Known about the structure:
Elements: H1 2-23, H2 26-48, H3 54-71, H4 79-89, H5 96-101
Amino acid sequence: MAHAAQPVDTIGAGHLFGWGLAHVPASTATTLSLLEPAVAAVLAVLVVGERLPPAGWTGIALVIACLAVLTTPADGIDRRSRRASARRDGTPAPDRARMAER
């Protein structure tokens, strides 16, 4: 019985993945795609009972740490959203020289 549901699960997952890609920004889709192998490894340990060697846990930690560094703004301010909101208001975008002075 489980084998009969497999094609439906695979097709459904593919459609949901495609729908998600069409509805999120590319940066979000890339970040989530890079995190997928780490999540799959952790789920294999928790659900299936797989054993992950220390190098595997180190790899998961490195992936999470690198993604945290990449997704954290350098100065705590999201510059892109500030520039975009400045353009919508009709005011000029912040000057890079002024931002460097801070």
